[in-house]
Amino acid sequence: METKTNQFKAEIAEMLDLVVNSLYSKKEIFLRELISNASDAIDRAKFLSLTDKTLVADNPEWKIEIAVDKAAKTLMISDNGVGMDAAELEKNLGTIASSGTKAFRQALKEKGGESLPELIGQFGVGFYAAFMVADRVRVVSRRRGADAAFQWESDMGGSYTIGDSTRDGFGTSVMLHLRDDQAEYLDRWRIEELVKKYSDFIAYPITFRQIDVPADEKEEDRKRREEDEKKPVNTMVALWKRAKKDVKDEEYAEFYKHLTHDWEAPFETIPFSGEGQVEFKALLFLPKKATMELFMPQQKRGLSLYVRNVFIGDDIEMLLPSYLRFVKGVVDSSDLPLNVSREMLQDDAVIAKIKNAVTSKILSTLETLKKDEKRYNEFWNSFGTVLKEGVHVDWANAERLKKLLKYPTARGDAGKTVFLEDYVKDMPSDQKDIYYLLSEREEDARKAPQLEAARKHGCDVLLFCDPVDEFLTESLREFDGKKFVDVAKGDVAFGSEAEQKAEKDATEKAAKELAPFIEAVKKELESKVSDVRVSTRLTDSPCCLVARENALPPSMVRMMRAMKNEVPDEKRVLELNAAHPLVKKVSSMKGAELSDAVTLLYDSALIAEGSPVTDGARFTKLLADLMLK
């Protein structure tokens, strides 16, 4: 045929400008797009050959080759796939978004084809990414089963040409004449880097060849170069698409290290397939140890996303809830809708379904893991603090998450934690609520005076000592039909109804006897406490501070103030142990002696809970005077 020149339509020229200058965030994406198109072409040839064996009469070894000529500043991507004739070149490359792949899939669907090949290209604009780095592109193609070859060429000047050409084998070659400032794409290391990054799991071997070989190349150098050119640059095998029984643990570990740059093998490997409305493959990993980046808001996190083995991006946060940010891995979807640049997810409903499936699988894995106490404790010690966040943010899975939580308890040994269901199982028959105590340090919590009545009545208390626990109390609310109750807030009653009545009567009697003293203490501490009363929760300590039912914990108040937030003073209640010898002694004091003693009582209550005293200098002086006496 005669070479003919055609003009791009005005709207197409405008679209070309958009593709080259705005559509893709990185110029390097061009190589991914062209390799993806080459892989598509091979897929199409293989599929069509199922019904027409003459298309593969040459018994091809499917492959993709990248060849560079530094002297000529050209980069060529070739495949031995289905190829195109002149009409297809005109249709597929002369019209933006008239994708041959898309049309191929549509035709198969209309004919009722059931086993559609997994073709990458969907939009017909990926090819034009070549013009981000090239000032001229020539495509030479020979359709399988045809004798003639044709070429398409354009310099993006508003027109393109189509004419006869020659090609020894079937398939397509795309030659890019690179611009002067894009010479980096002529270097082997750069090409290999991009293939590894974006196309490592393409199912066909991708090889590299240097065209402009020096005429005086030594024989040993030639042999070494030719041997290297036979080796695929890509690994070709996507582990997540292989059955778990066919993959060795060492292979999973090697892939995990490559993915995360962790020097240790993963703690747990989770391969699975999503089926139903959305189909995908995933390979997830639980690391062995937590890193500080888990608690850095600006740090990127998420899963790597592939679409039909082609890398789209890493740190895709939309695929994973924030409280599972310690999970690493990949998701590969066959039908995930992307925008035309493949760089943005555009179907929230599909993404949400994948995210829900991934989340459910991880939680199922943890539910199985908790049966192995030793291993689950290893996981919990590393990631328990992060997992707890889920109760606050993921209402749909809150009940499942509560069953995965572990806490130290007042009766338990230091360093030992229990599940909520085990705590409930061990509750005395007359205990109706789940008791907990907030504290910044576990050792302080174990010594807290607010635990004394609980111990007396045989009730254990969960110790909430993680910073996140304070936020969690708002969301925990109840477990197994039992409410969570803070032993350092409001009125807390322990034991049977008869015991509670007896303690209430004794408290009321003591309050009447100590009424003048209580009024004096209220007056002395009126700027610091909201009330003073006789306690039902103390058995050994002389006093303690408790908050009203809905008050912020003192540690949270301190944290918010450290973040420059204005938080009003939260006056608490000072509770006195009427049976304690010290309270009886102080109750008989008068004047300055009473004032000093009350100050020491109040400060001792602050110290007991791990809070700083309000006037350290006065406290030190009063303590010194007391010691001298």
Written overview of the protein:
With 629 residues, this protein is of the alpha+beta class. The chain has 4 domains: 227 residues, Heat Shock Protein 90; 140 residues, Ribosomal Protein S5, domain 2, CATH 3.30.230.80; 101 residues, Rossmann fold, CATH 3.40.50.11260; 132 residues, Four Helix Bundle (Hemerythrin (Met), subunit A). 38% of the residues lie in helices and 19% in strands. It has an 8-stranded mixed sheet with strand order 1-6-5-4-7-3-2-8. Helix 9 packs across helix 14. It is elongated and about 115 Å long. The relative contact order is 0.06.
Task: Give a quick summary of the entry.
With 629 residues, the chain is α+β, with helices and mostly antiparallel strands.
The portion of residues forming beta strands comes to 15-25%
Give the tally of structural domains: 4
Number of strands: 22
Widest β-sheet, arrangement of strands: 1-6-5-4-7-3-2-8
Summed over residues and divided by their number, the pLDDT gives a mean of: 86
Helical residue percent band: 25-40%
Blueprint of the fold:
Blueprint: E1 4-7, H1 10-23, H2 29-48, E2 64-69, E3 74-79, H3 86-94, H4 100-110, E4 134-142, E5 149-154, E6 159-165, E7 171-178, H5 188-198, E8 206-210, H6 219-230, H7 249-260, E9 268-274, E10 280-286, E11 303-307, E12 310-316, E13 328-333, H8 348-369, H9 373-393, H10 398-402, E14 406-407, E15 418-419, H11 420-425, E16 434-438, H12 442-446, H13 452-456, E17 462-464, H14 467-476, E18 478-479, E19 482-486, H15 497-513, H16 515-524, E20 529-534, E21 543-546, H17 554-562, E22 572-576, H18 581-586, H19 591-608, H20 616-628
Parallel strand pairs: 2-8, 11-13, 16-17, 16-19, 20-22
Antiparallel strand pairs: 1-6, 2-3, 3-7, 4-5, 4-7, 5-6, 9-10, 10-13, 11-12, 14-15, 18-19, 21-22
